Amino acid sequence: MRPLFFAATFTVATLTACATTGTQVAIDGKQMLEKAASCCTTLKDAALLPLPIEKEQLRIDGTRQAFLFDGAKSFFVLYRLPEFKGTYSILVSSNPEGTVNDTAIFLPRVTTYDASFKPLRYFDESTLRSRGSTMERTIFINPSNTAERYIAIHASDLSTPMERTVSMQTFQQIYVGTGFIMVQNGADVKSTLRPVPIGTVDIEVNGLASTDR
Fold first, then answer.
1. What is the residue-wise DSSP string for the chain?
2. Whole-angstrom distance, CA of residue 152 vs CA of residue 158
């Protein structure tokens, strides 16, 4: 996997609501993936999902199908694309888990296929962009992409954890007289980012009417 570096800003509450660390998420995900059997030898036999009408959040983990993408097993979801009637886009966002100092994140790769499941376009983790603490990409379906009929979202390969610097903000209540004020502090801290085979992903389709799906 290519090196991936990005800056992020977190409040203390962003990740500490999780009861586990990025390390534990990585361990759990690896165990799930090792136990999972491939769903099929070709994606022609995989279960399909329709593109969501509304923004949808889904968990990609051991409850999903697994498949060998270029020889590497990954959990995945496979969507059927509608007949092309006009340009639209698919936004894929991945949410971090763990703590500010020890973060796990599913880095989504995306592959599109024609009607015979021949791969047409491929987007790896090097094309992801950061937005706050999430990682995202937008796939545009243009007139030049009318042959695309399916789209798969699967994981990046699991390489060495990456170290990054994040800006952490803390908020403290200070009582003054009969009320209180909020004092904000910020600092740059070192964080370990662990690519993992499981995670929570948001899918949002724009520019496509519900009658087109």
1. -------EEEETHHHHTSSS-HHHHHHHHHHHHHHPPPS-SSGGGS--EEPPSS-EEEEESTTSEEEEETTEEEEEEEEEPPPP-S-EEEEEEEE-EE-SSEEEE--EEEEEE-TT--EEEEE-GGG-EEETTEEEEEEEE-GGGTT--EEEEEEPP----EEEEEEEEEEEEEEETTEEEEEEEEEEEEEEEEE-S-EEEEEEEES--GGG-
2. 18
The pLDDT tens digits for 136-146 are 999 999 999 99
What's the whole-number average pLDDT of the chain? 83
